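Re: magnesium ion structure - here you go.
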Amino acid sequence: MSDRTPSTDTAHVTEAFVALYGARPDGVWAAPGRVNLIGEYTDFNGGFVLPLALPHTALAAVSRRDDGVLRLHSADIDGGVVQLAVDDLAPLTNTSWAAYPAGVVWALREAGHPVTGADIHLTSTVPTGAGLSSSAALEVVTALALNDLYELGLTAPQLAVLAQRAENAFVGVPCGIMDQTAAACCTEGHALHLDTRDLTQRQVPFDLAAHGLQLLVVDTRVKHALGDGAYAERRTGCEAGARALGVTALRDVAYDALPDALETLAASADEAVVRYVRHVVTDNQRVEQVIALLDASDPRAVGPLLTEGHTSLRDDLRVSCAELDLVVESANAAGALGARMTGGGFGGSAVVLTESAMADTVTKSVLAAFAAAGHTAPRVFPAIPSRGAHRVS
Ligand code: ADP
Ligand code: MG
């Protein structure tokens, strides 16, 4: 979909499937993109995250096949139908978009599930490469469709783990478990508290509209090249910090123990490691604070914690960029309750919490600030907490 506007109209997916493959699909499934409210760079430290599903979804029309053939098509990519043999699927051999759904077939088969082929037609309104997890939406919609068609009986969290395995091992992207779990497990009107260590999860009330609030996503439309190496460097730094503190992961450093931990590190570790540890431990604490406020029906008080989280990502982890900082500054200056970058940083998206009545003013101020700075106009849309993957028809 070129305009990436969320749509619940699935007739076009069925029609396109019929035009491609000559028969009606067995069914149509949907899986959403996501945005993380708070808890950044905590997932590879065994910590907490708090994503919500977006109304933007990947839709898949799918039919089962029993002859070992996998046919894949995306309405959003030029290049026609990709045909693969399920027996020949091998990790890191396919560098096109088709690796995401093919990786899911591979991961299911690797786990012993007898998937013998499929015809798949996909289309998605999740913006790609904006930190909103268009890749996980693609994986999870494929996983759910195959789970239903092959009656595998896997749960949503199990499908998420298999989808993550597809992305890690088959596509070759070292992502955590948050994206796939959010796409598979989120529910309408909630954010998902996920413990990335033991994978326990809880739906946290996040019905902002009922409180007269809105969460805006601001997609800066930039991606700075710095990002890839920086992610690996932060990861290594966090691991070094955990080792120096004698813990399995930074998740094990209690917030109250942070001053002592920082003192220990100041004597023995890199200056950067000290900053990374401070970010991870404080952001993990912020997730718990945000959840306590949401449970107490006090979502307005979440705003300052978002901004604190941004400051920590900017100054301690140093993964922000001029465009993301400008979103936060201009939104807050225009009266937003708080804002932060979300996702890996160096571009991608930010979230802004605002009174609904102020949303237009805040949006206009952010757009004006970008125009004045000479940046490409960002894309701004409300993050309405939506349902996770489901069968549509
Ligand atoms: P993100 O998940 O943050 O959007 P990624 O780089 O992880 O960014 O995934 C984006 C990739 O996912 C695209 O480059 C493409 O290969 C694949 N993808 C996403 N949406 C679609 C789509 N609608 N059709 C085909 N491929 C898609
Ligand atoms: Mg992705």
